[in-house]
Amino acid sequence: ATTLGASAAESGRYFGAAVSNQYLSEAAYANTLAAEFNSVVAENSMKWDATEPNPGQFNFSGGDQLVNWAQARGMKVRGHTLVWHAQQPGWVQNLTGQNLRNAMLNHIAGVANHYEGDVFAWDVVNEAFEWDGSRRQSNLQQQLGNGWIEEAFRAADAADPTARLCYNDYGTDAINAKSTAIYNMVRDFKSRGVPIDCVGFQTHIAANENLSSYQANLQRFADLGVDVEITELDVGQGSGQAATYETVTRACMAVARCTGITVWGVTDKYSWRDDNPLLFDGNYQKKAAYHTVLAALNNG
Ligand code: G3I
Asked: Quick one: 15 exposed, middle or buried, by C-beta within 10 A (0-12, 13-18, 19+)?
C-alpha cells in the first residue's frame, strides 16, 4: 500500500502518531495525520495532570477531543498513560501511604472507565525501572512498595476489561539490565495471573543506536505470551536515521506478536526533541526515513 497506516494494516498492524490537539487546526498537520496514520495517542492530554487536575475532579476534554477526531476518521486510539512518576498533578506529589494508594486506584478507575471502548490499549504504568534494573525511587515506589505496579494493573483490568494493558518504558531497545528486569516482572505477572497483555518499547533512540539485539529482545517478551508494541519511536538526525527506522520496522514485522508502531509526533516542526527525529520534515515533506519505513511495512 502507499501510506504507513494502510501498509501496516495489510499485516494486521497499526501505524500511529502521538498528537497534540493544538495542532489539529493546522491543515497540513491534520491532513498528514489523517492520510498516513491509522492510530493516534495523546502526547499529553490523557496524563494524570491533564485528566485529574484536582482530587476526584476529572477533565476529559483534551482526550475526548482527540478520540472524537480519530473516530471520525476511522483511526484507533492508544491510551497513554494511567500511572507515571512525571506529569502528576501537584496535589498527588505530596500524598503518602494509603492516601497515595487510594488516589492512584481512583485515578485508574476514573480514566480507564471513561475511555472503555475507545482505547485499544493502555500504558498502565510508564517508566518504573532504572537503567540498572532496579525500581525507580518514585513517590509510588517509596510510598506503596514493590506491589504498586501489580495493584495498578489489577485496577485497570477492573475498570476496563477490554483494553489491552501494557507496561511501557524507554532504554529497553536491547537485551540489557533494564529490559531484563522488566522481562522478569512480566514473567512473574504471567505466572501468577496478574492481568498484563503487552509491553511497550518507547524506542527514543539515536541514528547510530546499536540495535543488534532489538528483535531478539522483542521476541523474548512475545515468547512470554504478551504482545509487544513500538510505542514512542523517534530517531535522531544523522546519516543512519533512515536505516535505523528501517531496522526497527523490520524487527516489528518479523515478530508475530508485534502489533504496531507509534512514532512520537508527525513532523519535525513539533517534536519534544530538537534533532529532527520524525518521518516528515518541518514542511510536511516525506523524509528518507519515511520511505524506508514504508518499504519495510510492505516487504515484511
Ligand atoms: O501545557 C503547559 C502550558 O500550559 C505551559 O505554558 C507550558 C510552559 O512550559 O508547559 C506546557 O506543558 C508542557 C507539556 O509538554 C505540553 O506542551 C510541559 O511543560 C512539558 O514538560 C511537556 O512535555 C512532555 C513530556 O512528555 C513531559 O514529561 C512532552 O510534550 C511529551 O512529548 C513527553 O512525552 C514523553 C512520554 O509521555 C513518555 N516517554 C517519554 C516522552 C518524551 O519525553
From this structure: buried
CB 202 less than 6 A from any atom of ligand 1: yes
Residue 52 annotated in active site: no
What confidence tens digit (pLDDT) does each residue in 165-198 have?
999 999 999 999 999 999 999 999 999 999 999 9
Domain ranges in the chain? Answer: 4-299
This complex has an ipTM of: 0.94
Global pTM exceeds 0.90? yes
Q: State the distance from the centre of ligand 1 to the C-alpha of 44, rounded, in angstroms.
A: 6
- Closest residue by Cα to atom 14, ligand 1, is 44
Class of domain 4-299: alpha beta
